Amino acid sequence: MSSAFVLPEPWQHALKTYPELLNEAPKVLAASDYVNHWGQRQEKMLMQLLESQQLQKKLSQDEIGQQLATMLQGVTTEELLHQKLRYFRQWMMVRIIWRDLAGLADLAETMADLSTMADVCIQQTLDILYQWQVEINGVPRRPDGHQQQMIVLGMGKLGAGELNLSSDIDLIFTYPEEGETEGGRKPLSNSEFFVRLGRKLIQALDNQTVDGFVFRVDMRLRPFGESGALVSSFDAMEEYYQTQGREWERYAMIKARAITGNEADKKALSDMLRPFVYRRYLDYGMFDSLREMKSMIAGQMHHRGMDDNIKLGAGGIREVEFIGQVFQLIYGGRDRPLQQRPILTILDLLADRKLLSTYAVSQLKRAYEFLRRTEHRIQAWADQQTHILPSDDASRYRLAQSMGFDDWRSFYSVLKDYRQQIQEHFDQLLTAPQAGDDGAGIKISLFNAQPEEKLSFIEQCGYDDPAEILAVVDKLLDLHICRNLSQTGRQRLEKLLPLLLQATGNVENADACLPRLMPLMESIMRRSAYMALLVENPMALSQLVKLCAASPLISTQLAKYPVLLDELLDPRSLYEVPEKEELKIQLLQFLSSVDADDLEQLMNRLREFRQIATLHVAAADVTGVLPLMGVGDQLTELAELLLEQVWRIAWEHLVAKHGYPPVTDNDDPQQCGFTILAYGKLGGLELGYGSDLDLVFIFDDEQEGMTDGERPVDLIVFYTRLAQRMIHLLNTVTPGGILYEVDMRLRPSGASGLLVSPLSGFTEYQQKEAWTWEHQALVRARNVIGDRQLAQKVTDVRQDILARPRDEAMLAEQVREMRAKMRQQLDKSDSQLFDLKQGKGGITDIEFMVQYAVLAWSMDLPELLVYTDNIRILGALVASGKLKPAEGEMLADAYRYYRNEANHCVLQDRPTLMSVTQLQDFPQQVVQIWQRWLGDNA
Predict the structure, then answer these.
(1) Which domains does the chain carry?
(2) Quick check: 260 and 151 in contact, CB under 8 A?
């Protein structure tokens, strides 16, 4: 068609001077009646456009803004302002349509130019109107005197920078604070000032004049819609969204972008709106919400006969946007990068995070780009806001040609395929996962069913004692919180309970497992999105039941911290336990969405990360994926990473306040003049699920001077405050519990000693004052975080103390006495049960034997000083000849066996006791070696 197109006279005349455009012109003018007629009506402006050579080149945002600024110079009346804005719009629209149809601009450039055009029109028009308003009514101010500006929020495609050729622009007007004007004819409230200003802005952009309009302005997305105030203060906005905001408004707010206003006000507004849009938990309730919205839109489209609407119809542009937005609303609160606006960027992120397959994202992106280009071609013809495919043959042929196809049939076939792909992905995403093949799913409502119906259903689920299970369910339903659920919460619980009963009925200990799940059910009733998560994700529900059946401890943790349910979504990752470096990357990513100065949120996120990582370890443990030694290693590495992060937070706070100590001028922990010495299970690489951290803080007092900040302090003060802040970060109870319980009693002089020991003081205490039991503890001590050189000095002190010559008989007597006192106070063994930790021949006996061996023999056997964990020290004792290989292997096996059983006791939430009938003969063999080394063990 373009080859037969005859250029109108004004265009022929204009293009004589620009032969390079002659090849493009027929194609463009045949596809856009708007551009064609504009050129004929505006010959002078056409020549200016051609002379500018803007048809041939890409413009930056600044260049577009500067062009409008030039056109608006000297504007003194609203009439002239309206005219110049419309001339600018015509110029830019012709330029953008030309480049699009000629194939000179890709989709991204077209959308960006249209959005920039709208931005600069809003910004510069508002600036002019604001000054005119101020001259008449004075400057709007806050009560503290600060000048107020109006913030224009761009919504929808404008907010995302994805405007189409004939888009409305959806706007919301707001301002920071109430107050009144100053310096005008008479004071006006800020509200009245900005309402007048907002009306003027709408008129400037939206009014139809002889020169057309700039943009159709839609204000219906503002709080309370058309019945709401035209402009709202930040406080009024916050109140509305906290109390009145609806789910569709959350979708709308994803794209919201402040176009005007200063950066501080923009940030304040964004921070205020973010909690409404993005929830901290995974918000799976969005699936039901989206199903309802889509069903309503589809019904309207069909009712209006608009199945050929490529935006709102089945497989249209809106469905691609919905796919991206539903994932943003579910995950965006936890994953800050998902809080971006452009849909193509979001789709790429969903592929990166494996929330959608790479194949699905590739299909959706290609389909979206094809539909958006089609949308632009439809609108380019007459500059009309339409998304309907043409129905007459001539228009269809023209559209197909402009899209690069020979005829309508070939174009429509490709379009239909793309729409089918979109619809399949959309339907797959939104299909209710619990529905059966007939869509019916489980019919019973445990809220309304008769007792005999409920009992029959429970029997079918496979429980041993259905009546007892029915009593458990009825007790839950009778709770005050359950009887007072919102309608949404009740509907979600109504769906979830039968699914839970079915899933739990399939495990071996079903009758014991279901009551364990009731505290969790009670907990998630307070936040029904977690009920939606389990309804929407059968695999998550399955993993929940599996883990709770295996471990009461896990079920207790899930009930205390339902946020952990998020981790059940992907069984592949649930049982994965990452290496330390990968875990560190995950920790930093987890904290990246928190502002560095938001200490409370940082503390909560640290606790949440520990709970998540521990759940992964426990899940791998109870399912046998992770061996015992791996459990201790993983929990130890987790504690070290969190300790380092706590050190970093505390360090940065102290340095900002007081400057750096003389030993360093940077934030490298290996140069900080401070080290953390870990004792006990952390020192011995054997941390358990609920273990305390036994820590001693040491600073290098060989350095001298003060910190170098504006408020310098002595080094002892600096390092003491550093330690205090670390303990605060670790010990403080927040909604996420505590990070770790810290035990400082092993520091020199115990509870009466300094919180942070100078190296010289630590050395002197160990040399002259420490008791034998403190030297025993030193066997398992190692530096975990801190200054590299100082850590080596502390290690040298440790080795020097442990390798001192000792009277073996006296040492044996002291170790025996200490062990006897402990057993007398702590051993819970009886004729039927063996205390795995304190029983005779148990865990503590092996630990004391290892400690005795190091203290007694390391002067001559320095290889005993290399490691701090019992298993490797036992290996060193075998290598040195102090233990026969069979004895060393037996002690190591016994130690692992005891710890494994004790570990399972913790996971089963019961005391670390074991029936003597289940014990192997480890206790007797351990006692034999004890008696050989240390004498009688009373």
Answers:
(1) 58-242 (3.30.460.10), 286-430 (1.20.120.330), 451-574 (1.20.120.1510), 625-802 (3.30.460.10), 808-934 (1.20.120.330)
(2) yes
